[in-house]
Amino acid sequence: MKFPLALTVLAGLLAPATAATNTTAKCTLSKTSEAYCDGTNYNASLTTEYVCGDFRLGPPKLPEKLPLDSVFTIYERFGGLCPGPFLAAWFNTTTGWWNYPSFAGFSVANDGAPIQGNITLAPGTLIDRFGSEYGTYVSPAAAPYLQRALPPSNLNTPQDAPAFPYNYRVYRVTKDLVVLAGPILPWFGQPGQGVQYMLYNNLATLTSQGFVERVDPAVMLARR
C-alpha cells in the first residue's frame, strides 16, 4: 500500500475502551477560583507559561491562529476534569511521568490484539508531531489534537527550541517510508480514534537519511 492510511474501523471491531473518557464529575470550578489548582504543583511565578504554573498541564492559552486553530477545535484539555483530578487519573507520581497505554497506544480489537499494520507513505505526504525530533510517533498533518490522545504537556514550547511554538513540527515525506499505522486508543480523557504512524527511526534520523524533510507549518495553509 503506497498511500497515506485512511483507516476506517468498524465499530464492532473495536474493543470497549476502558480509559476512553473520564466518567467522574465534571469540573465546575472557575479557573479563577483558589481551589481550581488544588492537587497540582502550583507555582504562581510560572502561571504565564503553564496552567496553574505546573508544566504537566500545558500552556495557559491554546493556539488561536492559523494553521493550528482548527487542530484544537472542541478540544477539552482535561477531559472535563479539574487539573488536580486529571493529574491524579493520568500522572504516575512514582515514575514521575504520564501513564501511557499498552500496545504503543494503538486501539485494540475485541480479541485484545492491537489494530496496526505496516503501510508505505508516499513522497509528498505531510506528517506532523507535537514533540521533539527524537520521537517516533507522528500523525497525518493537521489531525485534531483530541484524536491524538496526547497529554497537555506535549504543547509546551521547548525552552531550548523556541522556534517551535507549541512543540509543533511538520515534515514532508521525500522517499517511500514504511510506518506502523493504526487507530489511536482513547486516553488522557480524550476520544482518540485518529490515526498514528509509528516510525522505525526517530525523525532526526529519518531527516538525516533523506526520508523526510522539515517544512514550515505555514504549508498547512495551502491545504485549506
UniProtKB/TrEMBL annotation:
The keyword Signal applies. Keywords: Signal. Residues 120-215 form the TNT domain. The keyword Phosphoprotein does not apply. GO terms for molecular function: NADP+ nucleosidase activity. Residues 1-19 form the signal peptide. Pfam families: TNT. It comes from the Eukaryota. InterPro entries: Fungal_surface_NADase, TNT. This is TNT domain-containing protein.
